[in-house]
Amino acid sequence: MTSVEDDDNRRVAAQHAVAEHLRLTAAGRIDEWVALFAPDAVLEFPFAPAGVSRRVTGRDALVAHMSNFPETFDVDFVDLVFHETVDPSLVIAEFRSTGTALPTGKPYEQRCISVVRTDDNALITHYLDYWNPLVAIEALTPPEAPSDAGLGAAFGS
Known about the structure:
alpha+beta
């Protein structure tokens, strides 16, 4: 196999890992989802609101962090676009989430960009997740909450 073919195969495998991440997250299949990650993988949320971890490291911590997601959001991830990179193990993905915040019944519509690194086995080693926490807070704030209650909602760990 040529170097170009190796790069193409690695790129396809890395993009597949990201697509599977989205599919399994939306399906609430956290035990299968975590298998996409290397044992010491890092999941980062640069815009996480106060009270939500900005950095989660290791499979056990990833499972703990995501364990409430299936009870919190019913979403589909749509309009997935991969942006080409020079490094075949680096994936830049743009997508939307569309669905509902289950505790409130409010819509949850989010645009995301993720920057993801994978290893030689196409396991995710670093997932940098850019999403707008204000959208999540709004979706999780009960409609009857007073407007001066301040921003705050429980999700993640």
